[in-house]
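Predict structure. Chain length: 369.
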Amino acid sequence: MEDSKGKIGIKEFIAIIILTIGTKLTDDTTVILYKQMENAAWMSPFVICAISILPIFLLIKVMNIYENKNLADVINHLFGRLFGFFTVMLLWFLLFSALTIDSAVYTDIISTMYFEKTPVIMIYGLLMLVSAFGAKKGIEHIGSVAWSVIFWIKLSLLAALILTFMQGEILFLFPIFGNGAWEVVKESSLRTSLNAEFLYLGLIFPYLKNKKDYKKGTWIALAIIITELSFSLAAFIMLFDHKGIQLMDFPFHETIRYIEIGFLENIETFFFPFWLIASFIRFAFYLYLTAILFGSLFSIRNFEYLLPIIATLVVFLGIIPENPTFTIFKLRERLLFITTPIFIILPFLLWAAAKLKGEFKNEKAKASD
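Prediction complete.
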């Protein structure tokens, strides 16, 4: 009982991944995909998944060697103190940038789509306050909340998708490959970092009750996320066509405003609370990972105390852009390009370093003993 305290099981692990990555279909991520691939954007998740499989596989293989180390510890062990420090620093900078940019996007969604008269600083501050409070409770609390609400959140998404498919036009999906199959592959490969959270999952590896759940939970969550994202992209195209979507900032929120259920109006008020809860969980998890990385960089054991500082810094940096809808969109697109090669190459480097150091042989020797 004491060994499992503060740890999560496979259900909580999968729920965290699905809610963290799955909420991307509700922000401007979909617009980034439509921008280059137009009506073929719904196929991009499958290409991204195919490219992500090998890096994720290698990362799982390396992490399973070290049962009590997180990703930062493994990097320092395999790369050495100096190169390991700069690698972890780079990962922290990318994650902190993603946290700041994404939270600014979600604040913009709330302020422009739902609470236009509320000051942005109040919305941003409340978003980070609730997320920091959840992160301070620890990974066990984040996981239990994620598991307790995931059914209702995904049920609301399923209801929205069914209504969208019913009211959409399937002919908008053709031609299936849009501007060509090669264009889909090329543009998707440049945005493979949409799955970059799978790299950072190594940071909570020691917090899993059963280490085998890391492998199993990762593959299950990847399959669910790819399917969910693809169906959502197809639904948005069927409802608005790719030309209409390119004129929108947040297709998901426009969709729940557009779809109708009989005589009921303003049904977005039904979907909004579920989306908001998922957003809180996402940023609580982001904050937690950011604090873990910062704690690893400077040997801060009680990294939870860093959460209020990180959350405050995120708010001050996130409100700097004067026109966040366009400025943050460009920054987010650039961040995807920068993160993609790191997400693909780093697992290869870790696997190669472990191979050269004979770590896999040592693991086999321990297993035989």
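Summary: The longest helix spans residues 212-245.
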